[in-house]
UniProtKB/TrEMBL annotation:
One Pfam entry name: Y_phosphatase3
Native source species: Fusarium phyllophilum
Annotated signal peptide: none
The protein's name in its UniProt record: Tyrosine phosphatase
Molecular-function annotations in GO: phosphoprotein phosphatase activity
Record InterPro entries: Prot-tyrosine_phosphatase-like, Tyr/Ser_Pase_IphP-type
Superkingdom of this protein's organism: Eukaryota
Amino acid sequence: MAGLLQTLAGTKQQDVIFDYMLSRIGIETARERLLLFILANIDVKSTEEPGFWNMVSLRPSFWEAFGQGVKAEYGGWDGYVKGLGLSNKDLETIKHNLRA
């Protein structure tokens, strides 16, 4: 959500990615509980299963890939927001308020 709002606000992508990477610091104290929750709630039996650490890790390339997916599917972040049911006027109001 933060990355979406930052992008709509016109924040440089390198800064959006930096903030995304800071998320890791914010969840560090809950990391063990999060890992246990993931193991208990998805079909993964061990942290050694292929792909597990990719699924629970943060890397700049993950945010970049997510943005590419949004672009491919919706034409960009504006299209994504419109896909949520917001109008052009809504989108412009959001951008204006974020940039004020």
